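Practice record 12: protein with zinc ion.
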Amino acid sequence: MEGNSGASPGARVILGSVVSFRDDPSHLGSRRAVRYYRRGAVAIDESGRVAWRGHAARLPRAYLGLPVDDYQGALVLPGFIDAHIHFPQHRMLAAPGSDLLDWLERFTFPEESRYASKAHARAAADAFLDRLAQHGTTAAVVFSSVHRSATEALFAAGDRRRHFIVCGKSMMDRNAPASLRDDPASSARDTEALIKRWHGRPRSRYAITVRFAVTSTEEQLRAAGALAAQYPDCYVQGHLAESSKEMTLVKQLFPWASDHTDIYDRFGLLGPRSLYAHGIHLSERECSRLSATGTTIVHCPTSNTFLGSGLFDAKHLGRRDRPVPIAIATDVAGGTSYSMLQTLAEAYKIAKLRGHVFTAHELFHLATRGNAVRLGLADEIGTLDPGRWADIVVLNPSATPVLEARQALSRNLEDTLFTLMLLGDDRAVRATYLAGRKVWGTVPATRHRPSVGR
Ligand SMILES: [Zn+2]
């Protein structure tokens, strides 16, 4: 992390090509859904929220005296929201498991066991949040390990560094090594203590976290459901219908259930604040039930291709008569990149293989406002509308020689964004701001007597 004059908190103006979304382009069409100010400005107030955004030439007089971070030529967007990522897997990307279950046993569980150490978790929390900032991710829905102290460490680091963190301690009391198992009573007790300490702080929220049905007994699932009923404004997160071997295992463990979704349903774990990663192998019955309960499926494209889990079918899930709400995420470290740009590129390719074409506008919307809507947080994050947190990523659309050459052919914003997501990664992230404070990036030309919009 660098230190420079631009890193100090406080009111300021950011200049660049401002892109934000007022609605989903797939519903409203790009023309009406996208807010684009080619020579744009975002004014940030002392509290770290957006005070104003629009054409730089129309910047209100009240903001003319503020310091200016000048990124003209770059894109200024709301920071990316990663709707599913694993903190204790932050350094084990690209572990070559043969499938989900093999990957869990051979690589993931041993690595997660290290988070029993408080010192290890504290250092890892800083490294993990550095990585998010470096990739322009300003908010994340995070799986912690089974350990309460590791979860505390991440919340504390997020609070100190102003990352917007939704997180929960994994509840898992079977089918995992002893070092990673809790029990129904202790998992409920630890979860409740963490909720009381962290949920509802300005930029922290709690997610009741069940890894997947395979690693929880019915007694633990019941405890999780009771917590969800007791704390209805907390989130619920887990994994669902990721691999075919998992489905076979679920059938053996829960012979009474019609499917994996039915198990979560039976214990009160579906609903508009529930998010389940993957949803690749869902029956028609499950899609209808997820739709009826408003439960979100989080698409994790680089994870699905890496582990060979299957090809997500966005078009099928989004069917108009029973739409299943969709979010998007990296799923590091099943996922192979922290970059939401790379994640969008993989989602584009998977959709293509399923006979569906996403536009860049649709995908950038999904990674910003779309994910915020799924979290019920669109009044807080995900756009650059006044009153929202000034969580911002500045992207250089021509960051590499390959990008630069290709962008010479881009004719409009859709072209520019499309090229950026297919060919871009963290090298394209010029700066990241958390609640108005620059925490990552190159030094912009900060001017103290601005003449913006000329
Ligand atoms: Zn996951």
